[in-house]
Specification:
This protein has one domain. About 20% of the residues lie in helices and about 30% in strands. A hairpin with a 4-residue loop joins strand 2 and strand 3. The N and C termini lie far apart (about 60 Å). The protein contains three helices and seven strands, in the order E-H-E-E-E-E-H-E-H-E.
């Protein structure tokens, strides 16, 4: 009896798991992931982040600009860690590979990269 071969994955579909600590500094997480969940459930792509002390000004790819505070317990921080969003913003044009990379990211309490605070 000849054993069957396992179906091979197409190039680029191998899912690499990424682990980050849950309690990393919020601005370091935003700099790494470059995604922002809005209150309506849309996931926006971040174009630039300008950090000024305990606040930061974020500009998305759909040209929306707002100021956020550095808080690990904020709604946005919790939504990013738990991956709560309804859909990606159609105006930001977030590529599929970035959404797949975000979906394969895990946040653990005692395991993962401790992202350094941005300069």
């Amino acid at each position: 009896m000849i054993p069957e071969k396992a179906p091979e994955k197409a190039a680029g579909t191998a899912e690499k798991k990424r682990f980050y600590r849950k309690r990393v500094p919020f601005f370091a997480l935003l700099n790494k992931i470059k995604l922002w969940p809005s209150r309506r459930g849309l996931l926006h792509g971040i174009q630039s982040i300008e950090i000024r002390g305990k606040t930061a000004t974020i500009v998305t790819h759909c040209r929306k600009s707002f100021t956020v505070a550095d808080s690990r317990n904020s709604r946005a921080a919790r939504w990013l860690r738990n991956k709560w969003y309804a859909e990606a913003c159609p105006q930001c044009h977030i590529p599929r590979w970035k959404l797949e990379k975000y979906a394969s990211t895990y946040f653990r309490k005692r395991w993962g990269s401790q992202l350094k605070a941005p300069p």
